[in-house]
Amino acid sequence: MSPSSASPLVTCATCRACCCQLEVILMGDDSVPRHLTHEDEWGGEVMRRLDDGWCVALDRDTMLCTIYERRPDVCREYEMGGLACIEERAHLDRPPAQPLRGPL
Ligand code: SF4
Ligand code: SF4
């Protein structure tokens, strides 16, 4: 299937911001407010994520980016309807992860 024939159902409005749970590595030109970032274990600067797994900059009520005009390059280049997007959206159809259980 060519990109131009991608399903019209692939829109961010039909997605729970799946891609905003991914690691977002910041690049040199990014100007994200520092309090929304942190240093990963390799010394790189990344978007901070909260305990629910989503990026700290995501509005949990609207599921929209609160720093859209200043969002990192990685987010700008993430193609809606692209392979990575389709892969992440596949998680929508999966049941939520079950909590790990210890021995009974
Ligand atoms: S995974 Fe795709 S459809 Fe969902 S929010 Fe990201 S770009 Fe939009
Ligand atoms: S900066 Fe915005 S677009 Fe990028 S992951 Fe965070 S909420 Fe999503």
TrEMBL record:
The species is: Uliginosibacterium paludis
Pfam families referenced in this protein's UniProt entry, alphabetically: CxxCxxCC (PF03692)
Instruction: Please give the name of this protein.
Output: YkgJ family cysteine cluster protein
